[in-house]
Design goal:
Blueprint (H helix, E strand, L loop, with lengths): L2 H9 L4 E2 L2 H13 L1 E9 L12 E7 L2 E5 L1 H4 L3 H6 L5 E3 L2 H10 L7 E3 H7 L7 H9 L19 H12 L1 H15 L2 H11 L24 H21 L3 H4 L2 H10 L4 H5 L7 H5 L1 H13 L20 H4 L1 H20 L4 H4 L2 H9 L6 H11 L3 H18 L1
Parallel strand pairs: 1-4, 2-5, 5-6
Antiparallel strand pairs: 2-3, 3-4
Helix pairs in contact: 1-8, 6-9, 7-9, 11-13, 11-16, 18-20, 18-22, 21-22
Length: about 400
């Protein structure tokens, strides 16, 4: 355990807010503080099907730390409204914003310390690495993968969770200074403004294709069985709010699809199908296999792309002119990003570049800029990337 965690345990100030009355008092404390407010959440993704927040941590100078259990409260709208005009600090905001939105905790203005570190070109942008570099403090990550749906939450876990937000304000200040010095503060403002409206991408149309070792299945019938097993597991996981992998691991599903057992006894005898849930829900899995064996809806070897664009490796045959554009534009954008000390993906979303190359609405900088804006690129990205892409498209002619 880190020394800072130990001090929190010694002080004993790890009370968790779980009632409306306690939340009201906590809000009053926050309003007595000054400056931006650091926020973090803890989920139980490896244990639960849902990605809901099981703990919300907040810190503000002059107010201290609040630890909130959102489960009995349901909504934190009152908290959000009380601090809505303040800057909220998060690290990797896209991970926290969806579960925060579920409990009505929605910012109007934010600062993402992970994204700031990316814009600054830092080689490691995890919270522990950034805190170590900027503050010289080592964060213990011993409880990051624990089951935060546990009740009551152990004091050691709470101390770990509190430290994450207690250092975040200092991290924000150091990063803000570095952004200004690098001339990237305007870029960051645009990124943070866009993040306020962040929504996760809709699920892929055939999520079952993410099964590990699916590529080992050769026939459409095996794929159909794998699909039905995945759908059965997903439905049961949703019903029981259990992470799918804790019910039956992927290797058991793909192993069963590869073996294509002809009886329930053969399924039970598979070495991959030896887990507790594999046995207790054997009828469920066998019914899925039977559906896969009987269906006439046989899947193709490769599934549909999310945006309707084929994988670039097929472009040379399907659309050679798009392939030529892509092979010149992608390295050109990457080179410009390197010059600016940026990850390529932060200069331009890869899907945006693929869309441009596959079906451009024009090859001049103005047309490229309009198309990028329609796709959702920020103005700072457009101003840098559009001229680079225009040049690459010209060379591809």
């Amino acid at each position: 355990m880190a020394a800072a965690d130990a001090r929190r345990l010694e002080r004993g100030d790890l009370d968790v807010i779980g009632t409306a009355e306690a939340l009201e008092r906590g809000i009053d404390r926050l309003l007595d503080g000054t400056g931006p407010i650091a926020i973090d959440t803890e989920r139980a993704s490896g244990f639960r099907y849902s990605d809901r927040a099981y703990l919300v941590q907040l810190f503000r100078r002059g107010a201290g730390t609040l630890l909130i259990d959102p489960v009995p409260l349901g909504s934190l709208r009152a908290l959000a409204e009380a601090i809505r005009d303040e800057e909220w600090i998060l690290h990797a905001a896209t991970q926290d914003l969806p579960c925060m939105r579920e409990i009505d905790l929605v910012p109007l203005r934010l600062f993402d310390t992970e994204l700031a570190a990316r814009l600054l070109g830092k080689p490691r942008v995890g919270l522990g690495s950034v805190v170590q570099e900027l503050l010289g403090v080592e964060l213990a990550k011993a409880h990051s993968a624990d089951d935060w749906s546990t009740r009551p939450l152990p004091a050691e876990w709470l101390a770990y969770a509190a430290l994450d937000v207690e250092l975040l304000v200092d991290v924000r200040d150091r990063l803000a200074e570095q952004l200004v010095a690098a001339g990237k503060d305007g870029w960051a403002r645009e990124e943070f403004e866009a993040l306020v409206d962040f929504r996760p991408r809709p699920p892929e149309p055939e999520r079952w294709r993410r099964l590990s070792k699916l590529s080992t299945l050769r026939s459409p019938r095996q794929l159909a069985v794998a699909r039905e097993l995945w759908l059965a597991r997903d439905a049961y996981a949703r019903e029981t709010d259990t992470a799918p992998g804790r019910i039956v691991p992927d290797r058991a599903l793909t192993g069963a699809a590869a073996a294509m057992p002809r009886t329930k006894a053969q399924l039970a005898g598979l070495k991959e199908f030896t887990g507790k849930q594999s046995r207790s829900q054997l009828d469920r899995w066998w019914q899925a296999i039977e559906r896969g064996r009987a269906t006439e809806d046989l899947p193709r070897r490769s599934g549909p792309s999310r945006d309707g664009i084929p994988h670039p490796r097929t472009w040379a045959n399907k659309r050679p002119e798009a392939d030529a554009r892509f092979k010149l534009a992608r390295p050109a954008v990457a080179a410009r990003a390197e010059e600016l000390g940026l990850p390529t993906d932060n200069l331009l979303t890869p899907a945006h570049l693929r869309q441009l190359c596959w079906e451009p609405l024009g090859t001049d900088a103005e047309s490229i800029s309009r198309q990028l804006a329609t796709l959702g690129a920020r103005q700072w990205q457009i101003s840098i990337a559009a001229p680079v892409i225009e040049t690459a498209f010209g060379e591809a002619l």
